# Entry
Amino acid sequence: MNSFKRWGIGAVAVLLLGGCSDSGNVQEKSAPSSVMAAALQGDLTYQDVLEKGETIHTLAMTPDAAYVWVGTHAGLYSSTGGGLWGLLSPQLEQFDIVGWFVDPEDSEHIYVGGNEGVRRSTDGGKNWTPASNGLPEPAQIRSFAGTRQGEKVRLFAFVSGEGIYQSTDKGETWSLWQPMDQEVYAMDFDPKENRLYVAAQFSLLYNEEGQWKTEEIPEAEQIYSLSVNRRTGVLAVATEKGVYEKIDGEWRLLDARSPEKLIVIASGGGDTKWVGIGESALIYKLSDNRWTKWN
# Structure
C-alpha cells in the first residue's frame, strides 16, 4: 500500500465536504451523490487510484455510507462497490483536486478547486467549465470550501502566497476576501457559528467580522484537517493527538482511537459518524464508537 503523500509544512491534508446551509444544520443532499457513484463503471482498485492519483487531498462519504469520494492529484474518484473505483469525469483526470462543494439546494451544481483554478458542473458532474474569473493566473488553489446562505452560494478558495478568495455568485466572479501570510491546509464553514474555520500553518483560526482569531485545542499542536458533520453540525479536527470534537463550545478528544494517525477527517453517512484517511492511505470509519477499516 502506498503511503499518504503530503505537501507543505507540518499538517498538510486538504479537506472539503459536500456543503453547508446556514440554517444551523448541514443538509444531507449537500453530500456526494450515491446515484452518480452507482452509475459509474468501476474498473480500478484502490491501489490503482493511489498510483494514478499520486496524492490524495480530499475525502467524502455519501449520506447512505455506500460510497466514498476522493480528490487526488489527478482527478476525482468514487468507490463503486465490490472493492472497485471509477473516475467521476474524464474532464477532471488531469486536474489536481484539493476540494469540492456540492450545492445543498441543487446537487447537480458541483464546484471543484485545484491547481488550475475552479471548475463548475451544472449537470451532476458530466461536464465541467472554468469558473475562475478574478482569481490569479495561474490560480494555485491549496484549499477550497463552500456554503449556502439562503439564496446565496459562498465559495472560498485559498491561493498560496495571497490569501482566501471568495465568490458569492456561484463562481462567476472572485475577489480577495482575506489576505493570509501563512499556508492553509484545510477549511470548512461552520453554519452553527457562522464562521469559516481554517487549519493554517501554525494554528486553527476562524474569521469573525474580518479579523482572524486563534482557536485553542488542548494539548494539540498540529491540525491536519477539519470537517463539519453534515447531520449534527459538530466540528471535528484531526491532530497529532487524535480526533477532537467541539461540543457546546468545548473541545473533547474522542475516546475511540484510530489504528493509525488520521491525516484527513470527513463527515460520515448512515451509521458512520466520521470517516478518515490514515498516513498509510487506508480509509477508516467511526461507527459505534470504534474505528475500523472501511471496506
